[in-house]
Design a protein that fits this description.
Layout lengths: L1 H25 L5 H24 L4 E2 L5 E2 L2 H10 L2 H8 L2 H6 L4 H10 L7 H4 L2 H21 L1
Antiparallel strand pairs: 1-2
Amino acid sequence: MKANWDLWLTVLLIVTCIITPYRIAFEAKEGSNEKRSVIVNNIIDVFFLFDMIFSFTTAYTDEDFRVIDDRATIAKGYLKSWFLIDLLAILPFELILRGGGGSGMNDVVRLARIGRLYKLIKLTKLMRVFKIVKDRSKFLKYVQDML
């Protein structure tokens, strides 16, 4: 089940890697297309939120291929490694920046356009896919050497 979940998240990451640069480069004004892409983005973020929750309880193997299944150890390890990146990747900065309600904040957001660059943080989650692939290949090499 974990492998299927990781595969699904990989597909979502690939979609994010395609959508994010497009949105940063080409979507200039609010409209129906932006609203649709925000909805899709929020749905993807919900999946990543579930992944964060699962990461607090999912056992893993260490460098010596021992299974770590102690929840406290898993949580501490996650908090020290991927938690901050995962949290920054799903925070809805657009809603936070626009939440001011006043037009002054909206003008700042429109002028700065750099506010959209936070979406690039989502692309850092792609590093996680590379880590999963590396860990699996390292494990397969270890098993092959044992045989």
